[in-house]
Amino acid sequence: MHELGITQSILSIALEHAQNAGAVRIKEINLVIGELSSIVDDSVQFYWDMIAKGTIAEGAQLNFKRLPAWLHCNVCGHEFPMNREKFECPECGSDKIVVASGEEFFLESIDVDLAPEAQSE
């Protein structure tokens, strides 16, 4: 259910930036989501379709780009893709590993239609 709050934040950010740019319509929103984040694409899309109604973002396409999880070994410095069955460094065997990437979640870009007066600036 936390996707509702997240989706409201996405809409708020997109509307603010689109309006500051003089947009009359938001066509696409590009989101980056790490493999380890607990964001469910279908839930975000479901809430988006409800809360974007009546705004310049109504009907905008949400594009989800998933990033894989990578780990970093604090002993030897090796970075490697996460293996859900074995939580140790494949180089040195250490279990002193931390997440290097895969927890991301951000709005990467939006694609808008600009008002005619904003296009000439």
Kindly describe this structure:
This protein is of the alpha+beta class. The chain has a single domain (2-119), classed as hypothetical protein PF0899 fold, CATH 3.30.2320.80. The protein is 28% helix and 34% strand. The chain contains 3 helices and 6 strands, in the order αβαβββββα. The strands form 2 sheets. It has a 3-stranded mixed sheet with strand order 2-1-6. It has a 3-stranded antiparallel sheet with strand order 4-3-5, with no helix packed on it. Helix 1 packs across helix 2. The radius of gyration is 19 Å and the shape is elongated.
Topology pattern, helix = H, strand = E:
HEHEEEEEH
Taking the sheet with the most strands, its summary is:
3 strands, mixed
- What is the 3D shape? elongated
How many strand units?
6
How many domain regions?
Answer: 1
How helix-rich are the residues, as a percent range?
25-40%
Radius of gyration: 19 Å
Helices and strands, with pairings:
Blueprint: H1 2-20, E1 23-34, H2 41-51, E2 61-67, E3 70-73, E4 79-81, E5 97-101, E6 105-114, H3 116-119
Parallel strand pairs: 1-2
Antiparallel strand pairs: 1-6, 3-4, 3-5
Helix pairs in contact: 1-2
